[in-house]
Design brief:
Layout lengths: L6 E7 L6 H15 L3 E7 L6 H7 L9 E6 L5 H9 L6 E4 L11 H11 L2 E5 L7 H18 L11 E4 H4 L12 H7 L4 E5 L16 H21 L3 H26 L3 H34 L8 E6 L1 H7 L20
Parallel strand pairs: 1-2, 1-4, 2-3, 5-7
Antiparallel strand pairs: 3-8, 4-6, 5-6
Helix pairs in contact: 5-8, 7-8, 9-10
């Protein structure tokens, strides 16, 4: 893999009108200095302010900026915004970062260099976070729990600033609050995950839109964390988890019947317990079989995503670099500029 094949920078934004101009200026300076070919993919997650309009007008001051903007119909969340961006990347290297200027674009070259040298995923570690303990302590706790459940050995699971090889991340199935667990999902499919320190800056404009504080944020991701634990172990084979639970229930039913017979236990209680365990075993095996069929059908499907995108903007510089010319073929299909059909 070579960075000359292009780099895609994916940025979710929600009501960040005050940060659009300074963020694009920093990205323009860093990317032009270090890389020959790149694209900025910004997903406006249904902003209610002028974020989208300012992104469109950026070509006036930065005419050579290869910018592609996808605007969501509503605010579907940071995970959905990242999934939208990742589904259209064309560069062989993918970088993600937040749109609030707390991630420093100047860290991108070092992340990419580490990726090219020895990794499939490189995660940023905000060792010196510019936030109070109400946000940093839950993040550290989450990193420890995720590490125990998945084997992912990194310090910071909440840092959006990361670099990926496109073949690892572009087709991930993301749901809920799973953007925090993308490295764990990559690890589950055999990716080499590394980590390096990055800068973290205090927010100077606006207020956080996606981030939640304290225990509220921690409890919100617990259901996804449980799902992640199962997926990382049984990805593509749900029959293994449901099947073993079902077999366990059937074995327990047999042991209960045998124990009750030898011990002379009350017949009604023993029969009732055995029937409950038998029923649970059959149901669990049935659920596992159904989930297995669903997983296989999904794997064979086209992978179409929900119609989140209302409209799209592509700068002239982006079109020159990334839209296929007559007779050319690309590894990824590009979308059509302008509003999408509902």
């Amino acid at each position: 893999m070579s960075v000359t094949d292009g780099i895609s920078v994916v940025i979710p934004m929600l009501d960040e009108q005050d940060n659009v101009a300074p963020l694009l200026d920093e990205l323009h300076s860093t990317m032009n200095e270090h890389f020959e070919k790149y694209e900025l993919i910004i997903v406006d997650d249904g902003s209610s302010d002028s974020t989208y309009a300012q992104l469109q007008s950026s070509q006036d001051s930065l005419p050579d900026l290869p910018l592609r903007v996808l605007r969501h119909r509503d605010s579907f969340g940071q995970t959905a915004a990242l999934a939208t961006g990742l589904s259209v990347v064309q560069g062989h290297v993918v970088v993600t970062l937040d749109g609030d200027l707390q991630n420093d674009p100047a860290d991108i070259p070092a992340l990419v260099e580490r990726l090219v040298e020895s990794a499939d995923v490189v995660c940023g570690w905000r060792r010196h976070r510019q936030e109070g303990p109400i946000r940093s302590i839950p993040s550290r706790l989450a990193a420890w729990v995720i590490g125990r459940l998945t084997g992912l050995d990194i310090h910071d699971v909440g840092c959006t600033l990361r670099a990926y090889r496109r073949e690892i991340v572009a087709d991930l199935d993301l749901w809920g609050e799973m953007h925090r667990f993308i490295p764990a999902l990559c690890l589950a499919v055999g990716a080499r995950v590394a980590e390096m320190e990055v800068r973290h800056r205090p927010r100077t404009q606006g207020a956080t839109k996606y981030g939640r504080t304290g225990l509220r944020r921690l409890f919100r991701v617990i259901p996804d964390l449980v799902t992640l634990s199962v997926v990382s172990r049984y990805r593509g084979r749900p029959i293994r988890v449901y099947g073993w639970w079902g077999v366990g229930a059937l074995v327990a039913a047999v042991l209960t019947a045998a124990t009750a017979g030898f011990a002379g236990a009350e017949t009604g209680i023993a029969v009732g317990l055995c029937l409950c365990l038998l029923y649970a075993g059959v149901v669990l095996i049935g659920i596992g079989a159904g989930a297995e069929l669903s997983a296989r059908a999904y794997a064979a499907a086209t992978g179409a995503r929900p119609g989140y995108v209302r409209e799209e903007y592509r700068s002239a510089a982006w079109s020159r670099l990334w839209e296929p010319q007559p007779g050319e073929q690309t590894g990824r299909a590009g979308g059509t500029a302008g509003p999408e059909a509902s």
